[in-house]
Amino acid sequence: MLMHWVLAITNACNALTYVTRFSCDIFGFYVAFIYLQKGIQVLTRQWGSGDAAAYLSITVALLVLMVAYICGLVGGSTLFQRAVRKFVEDYGTPLTIVFFTGFVHIGRMNTVELETLPTSRAFFPTQDRGWFIHFWDIDVGDVFLAIPFAVLLTILFYFDHNVSSLIAQGTEFPLRKPAGFHWDIFLLGLTTGVAGILGIPFPNGLIPQAPFHTNALCVTRQASDESETSNAKGHTIRVVDHVVEQRVSNLAQGLLTLGTMSGPLLVVLHLIPNGVLAGLFFVMGVQALEGNGITLKMIYLAKDRGLTAASDPLSRISRKKAIWFFVALELLGFGATFAITQTIAAIGFPVFILLLIPVRTFFLPRYFTNEELSLLDAPTASPFTMENVGGNFGQDADSLRHGAGGMERPEAPDGLQMEDSTEKGEAGSKPSGLLQRNTSHRSGGDSINGESYEMQAPYSEAQNRSEGLSYRSSRP
Hints:
Layout: H1 2-9, H2 21-44, H3 51-75, H4 82-103, H5 140-168, H6 181-198, H7 209-216, E1 218-224, E2 236-243, H8 248-259, H9 263-269, H10 274-290, H11 293-302, H12 320-340, H13 349-363, H14 370-376, E3 416-419, E4 434-438, H15 441-444, E5 452-456, H16 461-466, E6 470-473
Antiparallel strand pairs: 1-2, 3-6, 4-5
C-alpha cells in the first residue's frame, strides 16, 4: 500500500509515456497463454475422477469455447437485428456457461461424477480463520523479509494495472473524459492494503477483461459500403459512435462479486463443473490472442502476398525482414517471460516485463527506422489520454492538435469520402471522427477489401456536436 502511494505522490505514472504496443502486446500475449495454460491444467486434474469425467470435461470445455466464439462472430456480423446481435455478443458467454452447467446433467452424462467449483461458507474465509490477519503478531525480521516481495508485487501491479488502463483507453476507443493514472494507482494502493489486512487476493486491472469492458460500452452503428468493386460491395462498416463513459458498471460488477459470497449464489456457483470453467479460460485466452498485435502481424506474414491488401500498413514497409525481426523479438520476449514463470524464479517475472520498456525505447531505434517503428509499433493510447502523463514518447508537441483525440483532421481512406450524413434508425447522435483500420474482425465487423474500419473521435467536443461525419465509398 505504502509503495503504491509513493508511486502516486511522486508521479511515477509519467513513465507510461514510454509504454508502446511493443511491451503491451508481449504482456497481453503472455496473459492469453496463461489463460490457456490454466484451462489445460484444470482439465488434466479431472483424471483424478476417472476417464469418463476427464473426457466429458474436455468435450464440454471445447463446446464452451466454440459456442462462445460463435456468439462473438454473430455480434460482428450482419445476421439478425442490431439489438439481437448486441445481446448475443454481450451475453453469449455467460449464457453459454449457464447452459453447459445444466447440459452435463442430460441423459447418461448425469451418471458421470464431475468435479465442480469448490466453495466455502457464506461470508467466511476459505480457511478456518478470522477475517483479519494478525499483523500485530508478526516479527520485525519477517517484515523486512517481506519487503523484497512487496517491491516485486508493486512492480507487477504498476505495470499490469497501468497497461490494462492504457489498453482499455486505446486509440480505437473515442474517449472524451481524461485519464487519471496517478489517482488510480493511489486507489489501487488503498485496495491492496485492505486486501492484505483481510488476507484476500489483491484486486487490480486485468487483461483482457478491462478492454473487453470498454468495448462493451461502445455505442456502434452499421453503415453499408457503396463501393462497386466486386469484393467490397454489400459489405458493411461498423462505426463506433461513442463510448458510454461511467463507473456504474464497474461498481455493479464489484457489488455482484460481493453478492456471490451469499449463501444462495454460492450454491449456484458450486454447480458449475470444472470443465465449463476450463472452457471459459479457453474463451478468454483465444479472445485475447485474436486481437493481439503479435497475432495480427503473424497472420500478415502468413498471408498470400497476391491476396494481401495494398492498403495494409505493414505493406508499406520495404524491408520485409524488419517485420520478421520485430515479430521474432516480440516472441522472444514472450517466451522468456513465460519460461521464467515456470521456474522457481517466477516471482521475479515482473522485473523482466518492466525491462521491455527500455528495450523498446533505447535499443529498437538502432535497428529499425522511425518509419518502420511507426508502422510496426505505436503508442497504446491517444495523445488526449496520455496528456496528464506528459504525452507519448517521441511525439512532437507541434504535431498535436486541439481536440479529444489530439490528432489532425484526417484524410478519408483511399476510395472513401466523408459525407455529412448518418444512417437512419441507428445510434442517436451523429458519428464524429475518422475511420480507423482494424484488422481484428471481432471488433471491426465486416471488411472493405479485406479490412474493417471503425470510427474514432479526433476532434474537440464542440466540433463533434456540430459536425456529423460518416464515410461513404466513392470508388467507381
